[in-house]
Amino acid sequence: MADPEIKSYEPHHESQSAAVTESRPVRAVLMAVAFAFLGVFLVLPLIVVFNEALAKGVGAYTEALASPDTRSAIRLTLLVAAISVPLNIVFGISAAWAIAKFEFKGKAFLTTLIDLPFSVSPVISGLVYVLLFGAQGLLGAWLKAHGIVILFAVPGIVLATVFVTFPFVARELIPLMQEQGNGDEEAALSLGANGWQTFWYVTLPNVKWGLLYGVLLCNARAMGEFGAVSVVSGHIRGLTNTMPLHVEILYNEYNAVGAFAVASLLAGLALVTLVLKTLLEMRYGAEIAATRGH
Amino acid sequence: MEVRVANVRKEFDRFPALHDVSLDIKSGELIALLGPSGSGKTTLLRLIAGLERPTKGAIFFGDEDASQKSIQERNVGFVFQHYALFRHMTVADNIGFGLKVRHGPSRPPAQEIRRRASELLDLVQLSGLEKRYPAQLSGGQRQRVALARAMAIEPKVLLLDEPFGALDAQVRRELRRWLRDIHDATGHTTVFVTHDQEEALELADRVVVMSQGRIEQVGTADEIYDTPNSPFVYGFIGESSSLPVKVENGDIWLADRPIGLSAPHAASGEAMLYFRPHDVELLDGCSGCIAGTVAASRRVADTRRVELEIGGERQRVEIELPVDHPAAQKSRVAFRPRRWKLFPAA
Question: Which SUPFAM superfamilies does its entry note (chain A) (predicted)?
C-alpha cells in the first residue's frame, strides 16, 4: 500500500504449509541441536558465573562487591557509560539525520565509516589512541606541554569506548529515518514550525523506539567493552579499571569469588538489556525490524 | 491572495524540471495543475509552497516577492499526497500543531487551540474524532484531517498535492464535491495537482495543462476541452483521434482524395488532423469524406466505439456510432469530423 500510515506494523506470519513442514523427528532433532547449543554456550556459562560468585556464600559475594577497588571500578564504568552514551546519541542522531535526509558528496563514505568499529578489532582501536595520544605519539608532545592527560586516564577510556560504540545509535536510526522520508518534516515546516520544533515534535517522536533500542545496545557495549579500553587504561587499580578489566585482574589473582561477583553484575546487565530489548521488540517490532542485523 | 509565477525555471542536478513557466492565479480561484507524471506539476506546486527554490524567476504573493521567503514565512497550507499526518499525535493535536508552534503573542492559548481544532473538525465533518490517532482513520478521513490541519494556520494560499490520489473512486467523487463546497465557503486561493482530468475539469475554475516541464494551456474546462491549443492537450484531455493529412490550397487531403474539409488559412504541406470520436457526422455516400472498414467495435455505455481501418491497414482511427447503427464487421463507414483542428505534422 502506498500510504505509509496504513502500513501494518504486525510482523509477517507465514502460514506453515504442509509441504515445507519437516517431519516430526526431524523437527525434534533440529530443536534439540539448537537448545543444546544454547545451553552449552550461553546458559551454562551464566550459571557458572553466578555459581562461582556465590560459591562462598552471599556474605563473601557482597563483601567482594563492597571492596574499594571494585566499587571504584563500578563507578568508573558508570561514569564512562554516562559520558559516552549521550555523546553517541548526539553523534548517532546527527549522522542518521545527515545520511537519511540530505544528499551530499561522501554520503556513501560516511555510511561505510560508521560501520568501521564493527569491522575492526577493538584492540586496534585502542592502539590507535596510543599512537595518537601516547608519549611517543603524534600529539603526545603537545599534550604533555599543555598538561593534558588522555592516555591511562578517564579521557582515554571514554574516547576508546565512544569509538567502539558509535555505530549502535546511528545504525538503528539510519534505516528508520530513510524509510520515513521527509514528508512529516515538510508538513511541520509548512505549518510554520522552525527546525528545532520540527526535530523535537516530529522527527524525534517518530524514531524514539529505534533510538531507545540503539541506546540500550550502546550502553551494554559501553559497560562491557574490554579490548579497546584495556589498551588505553593502563590498569591502575582504583583509578582506571573498569568492571571488565577488574574482572580480569581479580581472576588473574586467583580471587575467583571477587572476579565472578563482578562478572555477575555484568551478566546481570546483559540479562536486563536482553529483557528490555525483547520487550521493545514485542511492542514496537516493525519500527525496529528494519534495523536488525546485529 | 493573488499568486503570480513569473518565468520560473527549476533544475534538479542540472536536469530541468520546469522551463520558463509563468502563471497568474487570481485571488479566491480554484486552480488545477493537470498533467501526466513527470510533467512538472508537483514541482510547480512545491515551488509555490516554498518547499523548493526556483533556479530562475520569481513567485509573487500579491505584490510581494515570496521566492526569497522560507516556507514558514510564506504561510501556505499544504496538503501532502500521503497526508503526512503526525502519527504519534491525536487528530486534535495534528490540527492544532501549526498554532502550537507559533511564538509570542500570535500563539493562541491551549484552550483556544483546542476550540479551533474542534471547529475545523466540524467544518470537515469529522466532529468527535479529536482523540483518534491517524492510524485509526480511513483514507478519506485522513485526507480531511490533513486539510483541516492546513487550514488551521489561516493560510494565504491552499496547496494540495494529488489530494484524492490514494482514495478509491467512490470516496474520491464525494470528497471532490466536498472540497468545492469548502472552497466556496472559505474562499481560499487554492491550487491542486492531479493527473485525473475528470477531477480537474469538474472541480477547478481554471485548469493548467502541463507537459514535460511546460504549461501547454490554461483555461476553463470548456476552453480546454473545446479548443485545445496543442496536439498534446487534444490527446490528453478527453478522447481524440488523429490522422496524418495533407493541405493543398486550403483543402485537406487524406492520401489521394479530398475529405471535404477546408482550412483556408493553413499552410500547404503535411499536417495532423485531430477530432473527437463522438463529434463526427456519418455520411451515406462518399464524396469528400473519410471512409474506412470497421476493424473492431466495442460497446461503451450507450454508444458503440468502432475502430476504422483507413486506406488498407496503414491508419486506424476511432469514432463513436449510435448503438443501433448497422455497422457490423468489415462494413464500410464514411464520416466527416464536425469539429476538428489541424496541427503541423510533428
Answer: MetI-like (SSF161098)
CA–CA dist A163, A126 (Å, integer): 9
Statement to judge: residues B278 and B180 lie in one domain: no
Interface test with B, best of A190, A200, A287 (most B CBs within 10 A): A190
**Per-residue cell: A133:** 595520544
**Model pTM?**
0.79
CATH number, domain of B297, equals 2.40.50.140
Task: State how far residue B39 is from chain A, nearest Cα, in angstroms.
Answer: 21
Structural domains of chain B, count: 2
Cα–Cα distance for residue pair B261/B240, rounded to 1 Å: 18
Residue B338 and residue B32: Cα distance in Å, rounded? Answer: 29
Q: CATH code for A68-292?
A: 1.10.3720.10
Q: Are residues B48 and B65 in the same domain?
A: yes
**Residues in CB range of A106: below 8 A, 6 or more apart:** none
Interface of A with B (CB under 8 A): 2-6, 183-184, 186-194, 197, 201-202, 205-206
Contact B49 A5 (CB under 8 A): no
Please give the average pLDDT of every successive group of 10 residues along chain B, which has 346 residues. 93 91 94 93 94 93 89 92 91 94 90 93 90 90 93 92 85 87 90 92 94 94 92 90 87 84 83 90 80 84 86 79 72 88 83
Which domain covers residue B266, as residue numbers?
Answer: 239-344
Contacts of A191 in chain B (CB under 8 A): 97-98, 101, 149-150, 152-153
Contact call for A2 and B166, based on CB within 8 A? yes
- Of B187, B218, B235, the one marking the end of a domain is B235
